[in-house]
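Throughout this chapter, every protein is written as a compact record of paired, labelled lines. An example of such a record is reproduced below:
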Amino acid sequence: MTEATAEERVRRAAALLPALGKEKVGHRPNRCEPRAKKRRPKNLKLLMKPRAEARAELLAGPGVEDGE
């Protein structure tokens, strides 16, 4: 595939997709996976300014925000 032309890659990929769709997963006894996220989202503020500017404010300390 690495040496194939763009047209050849597209043709091969189109032929490969149906073949992959026909593959079946074997019998997997006692296999059960929960459909849940492991971690909860964190309540963090969105970064609404350039990262370098926000970092400079953090390093400057508390009370040194826009215009203070």
User: Anything to note?
Assistant: The CA atoms of residues 33 and 39 lie 16 Å apart. The mean pLDDT is 84. The two ends are 60 Å apart (CA to CA). DSSP finds two helices and no strands in the chain.
